[in-house]
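Our consortium's second objective concerns turning raw sequence data into structural hypotheses that experimental partners can test. To show how far this objective has progressed, the report includes one record in full. It was chosen at random from the queue rather than selected for favorable results. The single chain below, 127 residues long, was entered without modification.
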Amino acid sequence: MIRIYGIKEKLNPIKTKLSDIINQCMVDALAFPDNKRAHRIFPMEKENYFYPEGRSDACTVIEISMMEGRSVDAKKNLIHLLFERIESEVGVMPMDVEITITESPACNWGFRGVTGDEAKLNYQVNV
């Protein structure tokens, strides 16, 4: 589950491409299935979006929630790929991108009528 926040005037024009980039990074870094996209995009009014000094109105926050089990190297690779590809493909500088990864045990997830630890997945979590 991925949530993407930004000022609507900056986020809306790039949201489809940004979702494509994030999805491909998940595939490349975590061996995620290509069709596993679960993105929620939150274009916000500038008056409701506060960001640290030194950032521009392109400041974008990406929150990634996933089942625990990925290695530190896989998560760091994902973060580095996101910074690189977001800059090169949509022009948002790394200084304007904030990424957080939150993990929880599979038993804390529920989808397709079962808990995550009961689900038969077509991909590996431990990468």
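The partners drew two points from this record. The chain has three helices and six strands. The first helix runs from residue 8 to 11. Both points have been shared with the crystallography group to help prioritize constructs.
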